[in-house]
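Run folding on both entries below.
>entry_1
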Amino acid sequence: MDTTPAHYSRRLIGRQYELGFIRRLFTEASVKGGALVVTGDPGIGKSALLDAVTQDAQQLGCTVLRVVGVQFEADIGYSGLNQLLFPLLPCLDNLSEAHRDALRVATGIGSGAAPDRLLVSTATLLLLRKVAEEAPVLLAVDDVPWLDRSTAVVLGFVVRRLIGSRVGFVATARTGTDGYFERGGLPEHVLKPLADDSAHELLRTVHPRLATSVRRRIIAEARGNPLALVELPAMLSGPQQQAEASMPLILPLNERLKALFAERVAELPSGCRHALLLAALDGTGDLSVIEQGIGSSFVDDLGPAERSRVVMVDLALYRLAFSHPLLASAVVESATSGERREAHRSLAATLVAHPERRAWHLGEAASSADEEVAKLLEAAAQRKLSRGDATGAVAALSRAARLSPLPQDKSRRLAEAAYIGADAGGELRSASALLDSARRADPALRGSLLAAAATAHLLINTDGDVDTAHTLLLGAVEAHLSSPEPNDDFALGEALHTLLLLCWYGGRAELWEPLVEAMDQMGDAVPELLWLTSRTFGDAARTGAQALERLDRVLRESSAETDPTRVIRMGTASAYVDRLGDLREASWRVIRQGRRGESPARRHLGALMHLCVEYLFTGRWDEVDGFAEEGLRICEEQEYNFFVWYFRYCQAFIAGVRGQNDSSRVLTEQIKQWAAPRGAHGAALWAAQAQALCALGCGDFEEAYRQSCLVSGPGELSPFVPHALWNALDLVESAIRTGRTDEARRHARAVRDSDMPALSPRLHLQVRVIEAMTASGKEAEQHFEAALAGEQARRWPFEHARTKLLYGEYLRRARNTGEARAHLSSALAAFRGLGALPWANRAAAELRAAGERLPREAGEGPKALLTPQELEIATLAATGLTNKQIGERLFLSHRTVGSHLYQIYPKLGITTRAALRDALADLEESAANA
């Protein structure tokens, strides 16, 4: 409904600074884009300021698009977008067919399949940019918190992408109101109350006959609020205005304003108030609705409201507008609940041709459970979905649930509402409340498996935890399987796939057991991708090999796969068996579709995740950084909070191998702290693996061993912890370096007895290195040589260089310095090429210990050879202290001291403790000369 103020035009008083500020902003925005949100108390003058800004923009030849948020339209999906884009309908033909159709369907002027919200958002942005090519565009939004959710999400997307365009955005919002529009990060200007001199000037202009004493009283009570300054005197009698009679008692400003509007409405005749109530509850401003509800006398009925400037009626356009939104609120608040219900029934009777609006009014009119109305609302929700209004469907289903007589119907509708919210982008902030209500209505949560699956996903993206989501979904699966009704194989397969992901997120074997049982019950009806993923993504160390032949066959057909969901599920099945490279083309296709708004955001995220993993192992780390930033942005925009940790892991991994230890540590600690209260142990395992690799690079083998053991203890690849495959070499190396030879050998046996050697060439390489590190003599050399044999190992440059480093270290200690230098030189070059500074430092130190004279690289000066702690340990050891004595002084274990010395010797090019004193002296001299 149009609620643009119908007051006569007047000069703004006391707002010169604000007008100048916003004018400057818009002048810049007309060149390079920009946004501003003006906030302030009710009646502070935000709308008047916006009026002045839009008038300025129009005089400058700008295209002004204005939309007004209205409380009673907040549940009508895309109603605001309809207002905003209606003047631009002739320009839709400038868009691609997909974008044009998305906007036509979303705004209700066309029909078709429900468009993806990201597609609608992208189409809106493209349309505005095209229009701005002809003249600058100003988007002016009054009362932005009252925008419907769908429009708010679209505008939130658009305003964060205006930089570099000729589109500006100015919105107003009442202080303390949130609404659906996400204002975080946008510039904000708080509109302050008028100064006393400006308040006096305003009163003299609007109410010139007020007595001086009365004016002072009003200024004191209004406290600089322009609306109160203008409206309060109108409520005084003539004698009161002239100080001939006492004024009413002073009330707090907010309460006074509410009472003021209520009085203005209460003074109107009952027929007028009834017409206003219909107009306020209808919320469209369409006079024909009021005419059908009242009859031909509606114009006469509205007369008193027109004369008192409560509304403005335009018979030419057949529209009605309240002069201020608070007046519409006052009309509704002044009516009794019975009067409101009767008005809703009257509106429903006139809206037979509009089933969605009719169902909504019937729902508001109902005072008790009514299954027939609930069914109408449920049907309305489906119609909303058919045109892409998912948020409107959620509202309709929630209302239908409240009217449902039977607990199971109430629970089903609440769960379905949560499902639609999750499917539309994970933005339903009340998801947890919906889920709690569904469980209270029907503890067994009987109903749609698909709804339960999406509800679980929505739960983990809000304030819920993995265990709760797992319990919720498992209960639905078990109820479905135990029902005498035939299985819905498709729904069951979808639910089990979601349950599989929850098991993985939880990272505990006990979560997987009921999933395995459920799949056994399905027998041959288990979908192929679900079966493959359960083998390769669950307990890959024990069941992965049996799925490889079928997985490879599926992947051979992936280049022709057009279903983003299947592409992502293929990738999930491929992650731990290193087949993501076979899916690269398909993953890129999903990403490109996501960037164009043609693929759901969840699928876009999944493809980014899979390319991140592949590129981490293939050494394309700069690209991983870009993917991680893109993923984090999508998570924020689409409210997929749960998946933030994944991209932080990628950032932590790269920071660690590049020597940015503090950054890596901060990121991994963030993951762990986030995961703990949510039961996302699987995420914490990834963080531990990144911490272990970081510690290995900088020679902190004790910390590397501790973190590795968090992933999987020595001697076992923990069941249903597939990440133990990625961590096996880290555990063995850190165990060897800290003197835990028995633990290293036990873990080598566990690796040898698992499926790990057969899963992929990369993992086979790691198994060979593990065997080499726990063997000796010729056997060790044979394993190293086997690991490096052929060109395939070079596909993974970091692992290949690491193998060269470990082999070179082994050969140097075996006094085969010639071959050692060859391998170490190759490792050094590879690490430097990757930017893996700490690993390059390790290789350089070993080369120097092997007798190679190397030029210092940046960051490899004499002082960079040893960390501060290593230097302190070396200094104490050079004085003759034992490891135990050093540990007592530094509050370290003797194992940690030994680990550090093991790393210090090759850095200094020595092999014995006795050489420490001279080596440190040389280091000091080199540092002085550097």
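>entry_2
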Amino acid sequence: MFKKLLSILFIACSVSFYGQTTINGKVYDEYLEPFSNAVVVSGDARATSNFDGNFTLTVKQNFPFEIQVSAFGYKTETIEVTSKDQEINVILKENVALDEVVISASRSPERVIESPVTIERMGEIDIKRNTSPSFYDGLVNLKGIESREANYGFKSINARGFSTFDNTRFVQLVDGVETSIPALNFSAGNLVGLSDLDVKNVEILPGASSALYGANAFNGILLMRSKNPFDHAGISTYIKGGVMSQEAAGNNAFYDVGIRMAYKFNNYVAGKVNLTYFEAEEWHADDTSNTTGIGGTIIEGDRKTNTDYDGVNVYGDEVFYNLNDINAALPLMDVSRTGYDEKDLTNYNSYNLKFDGSIHVRPWANDALEIVLNTRYSRGDNMYQGTNRFSQKGYFIEQYKLEFLGKNFFVRGYYTGNDSGQSHDLRFAAIALNEKYNPSKNWFGEYATVFSTTGSDQQARDYANRNRFVPGTAEFKNALEEVINTPINKGGAAIKDQTSFYHADANYNFRDIIRWGEIQVGGSYRKYDINSNGTLFTDENSGITFDMVGAYSQIQKKLLDDRLKLTGSVRYDKSKNFEGNFSPRLAVNYSLGQTKNHILRASYQTGFRNPSITEQYFGLRSGPKKYILGTSNENIGRFSTTVRNEDGSTDEITGSDAFGKSFESLSNLVKVDVDPIKPEQVTSYEVGYRSIIDLNSKSLLELDINGYYNQYKNFVAFKNVFTPNYGDVASDGTPNAEAQTAFANGDYTEFVLNTNTKAAVDSYGIGIGLNTKVFKTFNFGANYTYTKLVFDQSTDPTFKSGFNTPEHQVKFMFGNQNLFNNFGFNVNLRWQNEFLWQSSFLDATVDARTVLDAQMNYRVPAINSRFKIGGTNLTGKEYMVAPGSGLIGSMYYISWTIND
């Protein structure tokens, strides 16, 4: 009996050992350079090539068997292995962009060419070709994508119009986690995003995406995927430096370094950390042009010629008074206080320290289930432009995520919190400095006394300014330090915000259970905890919390030999302050040709956007007599402020006053009827054509054409109204006698209300993109975008649409990844026509511009390194992104990347 058992055990072990086979091989790119991080699979066995391109794979199969070798952006190669001694050398060739696999369009893997909607993408190959200092900067070269460049680290990405620097209509995700700042509801560029070393790919869906991604995916969504440490292990680093050149700032050095460390402990556990740091000079904002005031326009004049001068980047001069109101013998002449230049109030030094780390656990040693625990931090200094210009000093953002991932599902929860640090409003810093050395009532009195005897603005101003804090002196620095640490609602300039939110979402795909079609279901929940201590929101005396919930489902079905693809989805979302909303989407694709590489598509989709936290709960003082007021029903009841009249008396104004007794303008005192804010909605109709065309035996043309028409309902934008500090509305809709007296005395308060227009707002556009190879090995790409607003201003004269987008954009790309051994280059050229920029800061025309970026790179395989030298805006002609922001100059850089 014992011998039989021993024999059985021996046979079992023999079979086991016989079934385990170890093979070795090497992966190269098409230039025969070692290819790292290629994924090699056979059945359940999985391996990754190292920095030298080598891999070792252990399989439980007998010869012969097949292995698949793949990498994002490259064609998958299948190799038959017939013996252990077989020499395995795999060459991965670059994939056609339209043939690559994306997930964002349908939350399910599919080729770009088969996507039911327009999609733009950037992969690892594109990042290496990139002419910009970072992958995020390079997104502007994609078709239909715009970038609002504020400074070295802060860019705001958008598509299809309607945005400023604070783009609340566009959602940005990193590995499924939204990167928006909780208090502001928009993403601050890539400050909480990925390092260039950790980017797997980037996908952008221009246009409404609410059906799958919920509220606020209104203009589009950007999804960044990082590299998994199970597949991408090792240490990589980069060192980058160069010069930023601007007429206002001169030439200033910048530095940028990063490191990624990932380790696969075994088939069960892997982990990674990323650390990046940069220092750079902000683009200086020094526009001294005269304006009509906050949110107004640029006009003629300067400090020497205009007594009521109010400069674009000069602050404190917003406070003005009419001399005739002080002394009836003096002329009817407005006089403004002497302001401080922006450069006197901030040092323009910026930095960002960014860290993220994650632990990945696969309980069954495969991707059937992966548990991810991730944390992400970002701290730094930079400038931000909203209604005013803000110096964000010592801001801090933190995120924590726990996620369960499987082949057909995910469940995740995360927390995001922000701390504004020593952030402050530059306009109110200047106003507070002026009040500190000489209160306005006294200053204007002194000015009037001297002016009455001399008739000279300069002499009167010099006398009233005699005790003015002089920039650069110790007295000035001490006074500035005091006002920027005093909360803005207490007479200073400081923003004290620690808003946060909790989020959970889940998705399940029934593709392995239901075979006739692909069905997905999912849902999400979010809860906000607003905490600005009254410096931004109406939460000085009581906290604010609110939540939102959503659920969605999608069905996809292929018919007619997989040529016809039908997609239908619907989502329901409900927020505390608003009624629930359904967002349906229908799409159809049809594949033409024998190879099915000519795709026609059409879609009907809807989007909606719940008003942002600022649009709901703002109670922000934006000028001496001006407030931005959030207009949710709850906030109207919460808002109350004490205003000072010209004679020194005070009155209280409430949110109900701003809604119930406001007038259109000082020159047209007609009552304005404004409703509390509601969610805005968009209905989008889109058609498109994608094709991979054989030009000859060695060259393909990728063609992508799309057109869309958007119809908006309850579109949200700013409306300026004027409220008398006392008095009311007469029965005929005009100010009663007391209110007329208030306006005559200058005793009024201006409100910027976030509200919905009743006017029809539409937009439409087309996009054409092509990519091919010319002269055998050179990459060439070109795209054109046309975007048009349809809005009759006469139907709502005081409404600002804030479209802020050029009608025409043209972009070109030309390069060669391997012009000769290990040497490559790339060039990007962008042109756009002029357009009108509208915002609560200032309205102005942004001039047409042409921007040229280029880079050269050289690979040194012996040390696994890539050196790159490049520059942006090489023509040297500075351009304006938005009125009030610093002009964008040129950047010249050199970088050294190891093990990319």
